[in-house]
Amino acid sequence: MLFPSQQFALFMLLLLAVLFLLRAQPVRRLLLLVASYLFYMAWNPAFILLIILSSLVDWFVGKALDREQDSSRRFRWLLLSLVANLGLLGWFKYSGFLSAFLLSFARAAGLDWEWQMLAVTLPVGISFYTFQTLSYSIDIYTRRIRPAGSLLDYALYVAFFPQLVAGPIVRASEFLPQLSRGISLCLTPQAVQLIAGGLVKKVVIADNLAPYVNVVYSSPRDFSSADVFLATLCYSTQIYCDFSGYSDIAIGIAAIFGLQLPRNFNYPYFAQSASDFWRRWHMTLSRWLRDYLYIPLGGNRHGRARTILNLMLTMLLGGLWHGAGWTFILWGAWHGLLLVLQRLNPLAHLLASSRLRLPIKFLGWIALQYCVLLGWVMFRASDWEDLRWALGQMLQPQGGWSLSRPAGVEMFTVLGVLSIFWLCHGLLYFRQRTNRQAAGWSTAWASLALSTVLLCLLWPAASPPFIYFQF
Length: 471
Fold this sequence. Notes:
Elements: H1 6-21, H2 25-41, H3 48-67, H4 71-108, H5 126-141, H6 151-159, H7 172-181, H8 189-218, H9 225-256, H10 274-280, H11 283-297, H12 304-322, H13 326-344, H14 348-352, H15 357-380, H16 384-395, H17 411-434, H18 441-458
Helix pairs in contact: 2-6, 3-4, 3-5, 3-6, 4-5, 8-9, 8-17, 8-18, 9-15, 11-12, 12-13, 13-15, 15-16
């Protein structure tokens, strides 16, 4: 069930109507939980059992961790949560990848091994809700939070449908206290603006850029450097609009229920450094990796060499979280390298105080965005051969700078949508730096009207699922 669909619109209208009639808070929470389960079951009903199992395991583990005082027993309870959650995630997401890796390794070693590759269906959203359940157990283990007041509240925290399948990744300390205050229906200007803007990002921008990206990256060796560069720029825009569009809609829908979800994006393509990029891109994942991986590994507390190692390990695992493939691991390693180079830059302090600070910052921004684009090539390429060709075209241009016109792709729409988005995106970025006032109803209605016109004019024939559903 996709957000930009008639099915979801009917689902929301029915849910809001029933919630309006039911005023008792426990009943409202139960209805939201049932609706969240039904929402998830629209993809594959069987996989709801995984969410229920994960919720039950961590609910009882959380109670045991809170009750137990012996440190060794508390660690064993935490280990149970880690094994259960990471075991399910590992089996469904990485078993096929590991099977193929072991087989290729055995053949390279001269062993005549043969077995049938595992074909495991990946449950939608498992990477997201697994991180939420893990953070709950870890936070109770470290005494940061107390367990949820009821199994109903905890189950709703895990399965809350707006952010269930693609985030934002929410902490129990952020969500559970809001449930104790109750579910209240409230349509705000911010919610209207977020939902309308998110739909435009997804449907008008991302879905109209997708056909060109798919054609070029299906066989990058058949296209010129101009095509590969433009397709990569389109992909960087597509994945941002697709993912941030989902997050905006999820945050807006949650606000209608009186629940606040954390912001997930903050103009990442205007970042000035690698670390600034990760403070702005997928912010809830970045802080999860920081708090539950980088800092426990030692962070920057044990010298430069250990800091570099911790950065690389964190980003490698962050890349692996995104997908079971070597190109995702390479993407994580690339961003880890950018973070390390930023930390090792001996001229950083000097450049910050230089009279040429503004030109240097601009050139640094250009260099960073080019490095981010190279990273998206690694992220998007389907295999090593396509990656080699696409990176070669980005680093050593060949084949001229004329653009192709692939069959089935309306290049005027692609270029128009790309240009309009970046013009509007830049204006919004500079506006929010000077005006931080919350939007009023006049702005919200204007945004809704403009969004409606754009959706009517530029709704593509096919609207694919959100990109991050596959992670």
